[in-house]
Structures are given as C-alpha cells and as structure tokens.
Amino acid sequence: QVQLVESGGGLVQAGGSLRLSCAASGRTFSDYIMGWFRQAPGKEREFVAAISWSGGNTVYADSVKGRFTISRDNAKNTVYLQMNDLKPEDTAVYYCAADTWSTAQAMGVMSSYDYWGQGTQVTVSS
Q1: Contact 124, 83 (CB under 8 A)
Q2: What is the pLDDT of residues 97-120, one digit of tens each?
Q3: Positions of E strands within 1-126
Q4: What is the Cα–Cα distance from 119 to 58, expressed in whole angstroms?
C-alpha cells in the first residue's frame, strides 16, 4: 500500500507561481514512478507530468511544457510540481499518483497509476 498526500494548492493570479508537494508513505519511494494529473470542473482527468524512479526521466503534457517542472526527493519521499506562469486554464484539482508496476514507457498513461492522493485545488484568477 502507498499513501499519498498533496499540499501547496491555493489561489494565485495569472502569471504567478505555485509549488505542489506530494508526500508518500507505505513503500520504498524510489521503487515507483510518480505522476501529477489534474481535473478541471466538467472535464476529464488529464495527465500533467511524470518522473521516473531516480528522477532521470521526465515527461510533460504539451500544455504545461516549459512552465511546469516535476522533481522528486527520494530521501524525503516527496515529489514536487513547480508551476510557473500560471494561466486561468490551469485551474483544476491536482492529484499526485504512484505507478508501482509498469515501465517508463507508460509514464504518461493514467491507467498505469495504481495509487492516488486526495487532490489539492489550484485556482488561477485572470
């Protein structure tokens, strides 16, 4: 079992920045791929970013590439999402997720993730 707890969400003006954190517990953190997803009101959950076990590989959705950065600290069992130049369309509930079983080729595939956090709200005002 893996427990995930997100934090760092909030209200920010367009152009501003936020850093989300996701603390993991329950299994060896460096054993699994970590990802961030988001779900806006009335929309399906979508992939945002993912990072491999050691942090050597990262993948981003086109909509956030160049603005968001995913990173992890395996000593602290934590994954981060640094979000810069935020836009109103980034408003959503952001979820971190753990993929404990698949390969790096599936880092952007939502169905590969078997543990999810409760989500944290990010609201970007125009």
Answers
A1: no
A2: 999 888 888 888 999 999 999 999
A3: 3-7, 10-13, 18-25, 33-39, 46-51, 58-60, 68-73, 78-83, 92-99, 115-116, 120-125
A4: 21
